[in-house]
Amino acid sequence: MQIKTHNTTPYDDQKPGTSGLRKKVKVFQSPNYLENFVQSIFNSLDDFQGKILVLGGDGRYFNRRAIQVIIKMAAANGFGELIIGQGGLLSTPAASNIIRKYQAFGGIVLSASHNPGGPDEDFGIKYNVSNGGPAPEKFTDTLYANTKTISTYQIAEIDDVDLDVIGESTVGGLKIRIIDSVADYAELMAKIFDFDLIKQSIAAGLITLRFDAMHAITGPYARQILENQLGAAPGSVFNAVPLEDFGGGHPDPNMAHAHELTEIMFGDNPPVFGAASDGDGDRNMIMGANIFVTPSDSLAIMAANARSIPAYAKGISGVARSMPTSQAVDRVADKLSLPCYETPTGWKFFGNLLDADKITICGEESFGSGSNHVREKDGLWAVLFWLNLIARKRQSVADIVHEHWQKYGRDIYCRHDYEAVDTEIANGILGHLRSQLNSLPGKSWGENVVKYADEFSYTDPVDNSVSANQGIRIGFTNGSRIVFRLSGTGTVGATLRIYLERYERDVLKHDQDAQVALAELVEIAEQLCEVKKRTGWTAPTVIT
Ligand code: G16
């Protein structure tokens, strides 16, 4: 195997965001752009010679090309073995599982998650460490520093590898294993959930379901598990073939983008259960007949009912949520006397808590939830959790949600996104908010009296690392909150996210429409941040 060292010059825009580096495909196709980033990953690692690297992606445009480059670079840099999903496909949670199961040194996951795919759309790459989770900030900081000084990269002069045939081969000293993308993951799910019970409920007609794979990675996983193993009717899983451009859609499982599913669930004769997952299979949207479950409520309901699931029957050690996620899960933790952690946005912040067994279940408002079974959020896991719960409780999704609200109260919640805002305007909005923080406590709008106004900073309780500037929080004495932050996953301009939350104890008011219930907070948010005034826009681009 001949190894070549190429000279290169740094790019100045390779700073990883909330979850790895995400850019337009065209940017990744710039000379040496991908090679620079991959070499910088390897330059940030120690003692990986001869060890295992897992490789896979969500199948979007440029996935296959990038995998061939990474194989050659991994060979040149001295990895001993590559485990690659067939066709170059691995969902993000499946990749996390494989890293853990085969005790790999780490993994490279190729995805831009819920962002659109295709030659003119987005691509992404991130590094996961040996616990199966996204690399922590300390690593991504080193990686970014390396991207700014890189001067050479190594690549092996070998033929492209056939990604489509399962099996083992050796090139130079490098072992390459192409594995079934689904099998290990399906086996793990069967250990966590009561597949027999779910199967019986489906066979008895107690559960009917539709799952929208959005032409993305979960199609093969969902078909295998939901249809082949659990017996859901053929066709229950739709948009099931992963396409390089996701069929031209936006593989983001919310009611705006998974509109086909939404129409089914709010149409005539809806099934008992509906769900969707995103580009790389780590996000989920949960629905029942005529009901959408917010991710924050879903997390709280899962935490409250964890003992109904075989893997968590003995109880859970604690829970965590990202800061902008609603406080619904806090109420469950309080009642069950469980530790509850508030982390910055980004799954990587849950890793230490999970490793130290401080938490078992965690989740985010951004349609992500998961547990200690892997170190990524896991879309199908959440779907199976709900199916297991429905089968155990023999209740509809709506009844489960209403019963939960009755017991804990409802945290009425929604998020307004202003996408692709001019970066200068977005930074101006944040600056304007910052300048008001000291003067806000005590200020009131009707019953909403500001209790605190700050910029969230997190100290990791395991390694004491500090992550500052993680979003602006305005908390009111009645429990309401408004949170502002800029997204770390977009690829065009800046995306301002406004998170709105109001607590309602009164059962008679639980059925209110969230937009109506939150209208007052929306108005306060505008007065504080002036997004409409400063952009000239009249409404958010997406409401979830
Ligand atoms: C990623 C992260 C999540 C985060 C989400 C949104 O998800 O893994 O932890 O909540 O981005 O981040 P932001 O608000 O910064 O856009 P995914 O599914 O895109 O990998």
UniProtKB/TrEMBL annotation:
InterPro entries: A-D-PHexomutase_a/b/a-I, A-D-PHexomutase_a/b/a-I/II/III, A-D-PHexomutase_a/b/a-II, A-D-PHexomutase_a/b/a-III, A-D-PHexomutase_C_sf, A-D-PHexomutase_CS, Alpha-D-phosphohexomutase_SF, PGM
Cofactor: Mg(2+)
Family stated for the protein in its record: Belongs to the phosphohexose mutase family.
Gene Ontology CC annotation, any one: cytosol
GO molecular function: magnesium ion binding; phosphoglucomutase activity
Protein name per its UniProtKB record: phosphoglucomutase (alpha-D-glucose-1,6-bisphosphate-dependent)
NCBIfam families hit by this protein: PRK07564.1-1 (NF005737)
Highest taxon in the source lineage: Bacteria
Enzyme Commission (EC) number: 5.4.2.2
Catalytic activity: alpha-D-glucose 1-phosphate = alpha-D-glucose 6-phosphate
Segments forming domain Alpha-D-phosphohexomutase alpha/beta/alpha: 14-153, 184-287, 297-408
Biological process, per Gene Ontology: glucose metabolic process
Protein keywords: Carbohydrate metabolism, Glucose metabolism, Isomerase, Magnesium, Metal-binding, Phosphoprotein
Gene3D superfamilies: Alpha-D-Glucose-1,6-Bisphosphate, subunit A, domain 3 (3.40.120.10), Alpha-D-phosphohexomutase, C-terminal domain (3.30.310.50)
